[in-house]
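Form 7-S
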Amino acid sequence: MNVQLIGVNYKTAPVEVRERLNIPESHLPDALKRLSQHPGVDEGLILCTCNRVEILARTRNGSADLRGFIRDYFRIDPSTYESHLYELSEREAVRHVFRVTASLDSMVVGEPQILGQVKDAYAAARTVGTVHSHLDHLLTRAFTVAKRVRTETSIGTSAVSVASVAVELAKKIFGSLNGKHVYLVGAGKMSELAARHLLAHGAASIFVANRTYERAVTLAKKFHGEAILFEQLYDTCDRADIVITSTGAPHAIFRREHGELFLNRRKNRPMFFIDIAVPRDVDPEMNKMDGIFVYDIDDLQQAASSHLSDRRVEADRAEQIINIEVERFHEHLQDRLQTLVVIPTIVSLQDQFETIRRSEIDRVRGRLGSLSAEQETAIDALTRGIVNKIMHTPITSLKSAAKDAEVTSVIEVVRRIFNLNLTGDKTKEESEKKKPGAES
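Output:
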């Protein structure tokens, strides 16, 4: 299949590296088009989440320079990220795609969000046209594998997410969330998940700010919170004890001067920032201030690790399913490749029989007289049924022979028996003989 994958994730690269390789959603179509135009790439998909940036490609010779694509697209010093990259190909690339989609490679094993994120990446690539045949088959199979893992194991039981782990961390810091005021900056899925967990653990009120005010209003109404105009963010943020921020901003929206302003208004009462955005929303310099505590996406990994031990047995069962599915995928792929050898003959056979069927109907139509629509339909169905039954045995034989070494001989026999393309071949031979200098 010539599948290649390259990327960084939370295990190989810190957040400061991942955020430099992040591709905003609005830039993804252009990135996909440029990937598809990169030498040697036939199909491509890009997956960007807070924990990973991965490029999946089907290549012509299995050795496209995907590192070169990263250099050309991002235009940043390779020394800042090269050592953090991993590259996989063929079977191991397929295994990785299956594991990621099934949430076995996630920071929080079993979290459900990654499946939706992979589906979003797939939809974006399909829309642009960079996923169409082989990768389409791979991704749709990955979704089926993920569903099987969810169905046959308990890995998703009491499912957690980055948002829920963030809330757990807040509880450890404050002891209790009862009476605490929470500010959600960004009204996306992650913020909504965080809001659900916060309210379930006693949060008193929720404020929501988003660049699109209508989305902030919608989310705030869901949880009986208060929507805030994004322009009023710095004037209102000090009202919160906990700030969970997850925007798509290309740079930090909270800097040291904002922290100083908030602490002054709060009379030095502490503030807790949980930054689950990549690129980060909170400048790390804020963490150096007394009274402000900042945790980014990588800081959540330690909290998430406690969930891994609880799910280890189920994760092992899921890994066994992945191993089986990888083998099945490659066996099925091999069958498809073998079948391709006989497809032209099968198509020729179908075309020839359809031509005969139609010509015979036309030949006797004059003797049948005027036919009603129902009679026309009946004749069409009858003749199609006869043709399909006649073709069944040769087509089945061709498909079975596709796996045998003698497939070429079987194809030749079928083509001669049914006189497939022989007329065209003879015409070509005769025209060759008529050329000047041809032997007589």
